[in-house]
Specification:
Blueprint (H helix, E strand, L loop, with lengths): L6 H20 L7 H8 L3 H7 L3 H12 L17 H16 L1 H9 L4 H12 L10 H24 L6 H13 L4
């Protein structure tokens, strides 16, 4: 995926992301071709392959550009109790699921919800405030663990019709991630 600063390339990436979201709302992801995506974005195939390696790579960019939120994991200044940072993290992701329920449902229906894991993992692993002070290897494993948990809960949330409240999702995430079930 292109990660440079060329304004024309960045604009083309945004056009592709908009076209991807428009197309996936019209038809199944599996039926969207690179040619169709390029035509909808108004760019050439050569430009597409200069910016992305695949259709999936373009979808990951689309999620990151439009729906990815960094965890900003550092506990709020008023949080002093044990578990406050985890509660804050669970609250943030439960609210994310509610705000993006249509997107999550779309990803699940198209069987590409695994891209949520990638998006969540990169947001956590790339956030300097996520588990600041923890060694990088452990931090990366933790980002993977939490991203997997959030992505799986998001999938179940969509499969059950996206009706769970933010409070209930937060409580569920806290229960699952705190280890209280064991």
């Amino acid at each position: 995926m292109y990660c440079g600063t060329n304004k024309t390339a960045l604009q083309s990436q945004r056009q592709i992301a908009r076209a991807m979201m428009a197309l996936i709302q019209e038809k199944p992801y599996a039926q969207i071709t690179i040619s169709e995506l390029c035509k909808a974005a108004g760019i050439s195939r050569q430009t597409f392959y200069t910016l992305f390696t695949s259709r999936e790579n373009a979808m990951v960019f689309t999620l990151q550009a439009n729906y990815c939120e960094g965890p900003e994991i550092a506990a709020p200044r008023h949080a002093t109790g044990e578990g406050d940072a985890l509660r804050w993290l669970c609250r943030g992701y439960s609210e994310y699921m509610l705000r993006n329920r249509r997107l999550i449902k779309l990803l699940v229906d198209n069987r590409i919800d695994y891209l949520l894991y990638d998006s969540f993992f990169e947001a956590m692993d790339g956030c300097d405030c996520f588990l600041a002070g923890v060694d990088p290897c452990t931090r990366s494993y933790a980002a993977s663990f939490y991203a997997g948990g959030f992505a799986c809960v998001a999938r179940r949330y969509a499969e059950e019709g996206c009706t769970t409240t933010a409070d209930d999702l937060e409580s569920l995430l806290m229960t699952l991630l705190s280890g209280r079930l064991f």
